[in-house]
Write a structure and sequence with these properties.
The chain is an alpha/beta fold. The protein is built from 14 helices and 14 strands. Helix 11 links the parallel strand 11 and strand 12. InterPro entries: Aldolase_TIM, DUF512, PDZ, PDZ_6, PDZ_sf, Put_radical_SAM-like_N, rSAM_sf. This is Putative radical SAM enzyme (TIGR03279 family). It comes from Lachnotalea glycerini.
Length: 437
């Protein structure tokens, strides 16, 4: 009978595991006589230079395998479940939760709310700390797992309880002190809600969070996303152009103050604030190494700079083709300007750039990452698309070829009768995809 353990799904060719003749279907039971609970245990124990693996085989045998390796050498095994354990779901009822604003009838995985510290370490997800046990905290400190990404929302304990609808949410912030004292690197996030945690509350939060520098490396401020499916939910309002300017004024004030004192800008505005305020994006140095790219902070600046660097090395020629690009409202003006620059460099090339309104979630959702297949089809079906349609990579979940509404890339290509290419996020990839190098 198979012992408990973690099923191996893949062996990396040429790896230590491959040399030991491990195969998919084997189970990892223990390392150095310690049973593996989850990915935290595995990541920590597998770094050692001398290992004894206890492996359960399909036929019920157990193999004990000794390994001598360099400290950072990978064993070369992957597991069916990336966490090697069940995912921890979120028990808060946040007033800004995007999942609560989705329509019925979508695939079930889209309704799962994670609040798992292990996903924070592995994938950069943000956690509220309310779902973290004493054991979780101790293991993060013992294994020095970092960075841990934290959804602060506010440092006002009473307000945090109200925003998360969790009476323990205020006390959960004390866990940040534990991480700080242990030297665990952290990044933070605030989802800003108009009239709730902005203004003076935002100033208070920035002041409080700055006390955790240097272990708290950065904090992003992003506007709440509001879909049209908010019936029965907290009556949140969208930020106006003037509101956005006020938010940026607070952030810029604190950036100057903190940079002078600590040499870091620390607090960062999501790109959407600059777009809504119609203000110029900061230069690259302002982003402190782009610590919050995945949170939409500095993505446009990095794309523009990479584009300019690659563009300066291009030689004009007479290549002739027509392609199209579809993007969300937020990025449209930047993508359009880059396309025009490329048409100027290659006069016989035509690039159509189409702005897609998010009718599925509502027009207040403007990022390309939340566009659906049905909106693309509806708004592109009568357009000139040329030889190829380019879409940004964030429009799909990593490793998938399906949009949020379950329409596949194949279905999009079939309906629109055009080849679809997914473009990576760099400026070089953008140029190469457009000019078809």
């Amino acid at each position: 009978m198979r012992k408990k353990g973690h099923v191996i799904s893949k062996i990396v060719p040429g790896s230590i595991a491959d040399e030991l003749e491990l195969v998919p279907g084997d189970c990892l039971i223990a390392i150095n006589n310690k049973e593996i609970e989850d990915v935290f245990d595995y990541q920590f124990l597998a770094e050692e230079e001398y290992l004894v693996l206890l492996i359960g085989k399909e036929n019920g045998e157990e193999w004990e395998l000794e390994i001598e390796k360099d400290f950072d050498d990978e064993i070369g095994i992957e597991f069916e479940n990336g966490l090697m354990d069940d995912y921890k779901s979120c028990h808060n009822k946040c007033i800004f939760c995007f999942i609560d604003q989705m329509p019925e009838g979508m695939r079930q995985t889209l309704y799962f709310k994670d609040d798992d510290s292990r996903l924070s370490f592995l994938q950069g997800n943000y956690i509220t700390l309310t779902n973290m046990s004493e054991k979780d905290i101790n293991r993060i400190i013992e294994y020095k797992m970092s960075p841990i990404n934290i959804s602060f929302q506010t440092t006002n304990p009473k307000l945090r309880c109200e925003m998360l609808h969790n009476r323990f949410a205020g006390d959960a912030l004390k866990k940040v002190d534990r991480f700080y004292e242990a030297g665990i690197e952290m990044n933070g996030q605030i989802v800003l809600c108009k009239g709730i945690n902005d203004g003076k509350e935002l100033e208070r939060s920035i002041q409080d969070m700055s006390q955790y520098i240097p272990h708290l490396k950065s904090v992003s401020i992003v506007p709440v996303g509001l879909t049209k499916f908010r019936e029965g939910l907290w009556p949140l309002e969208p930020f106006s152009k003037e509101d956005s300017k006020e938010v940026l004024a607070i952030i810029h004030k604190w950036q100057k103050k903190l940079f002078k004192k600590y040499g870091t800008h620390f607090i960062h505005a999501g790109d959407e604030w600059y777009i809504m305020a119609n203000e110029k994006l900061p230069e690259a140095d302002n982003y402190d190494g782009y610590l919050q790219l995945e949170n939409g902070v500095g993505m446009v600046r990095l794309l523009l700079d990479e584009f300019e660097e690659e563009y300066s090395q291009l030689n004009s020629d007479n290549r002739e083709h027509m392609i199209s690009i579809a993007t969300g409202v937020s990025a449209y003006s930047y993508i359009k300007k880059m396309a025009i620059r490329l048409e100027e460099k290659f006069p016989k090339m035509t690039v159509h750039v189409y702005q897609i309104i998010n009718n599925f979630f509502g027009s207040m959702i403007t990022v390309s990452g939340l566009l659906t297949g049905q909106d693309l089809i509806e708004q592109l079906k009568d357009k000139e698309l040329g030889e190829k349609l380019l879409l940004p990579c964030n429009i799909l979940r990593s490793g998938e070829d399906v949009f949020l509404d379950d329409i596949t890339i194949f279905e999009l290509e079939t309906t629109l009768q055009v080849k679809v290419d997914i473009v990576k996020s760099s400026g070089r990839d953008f140029i190469n995809s457009v000019i078809q190098d």
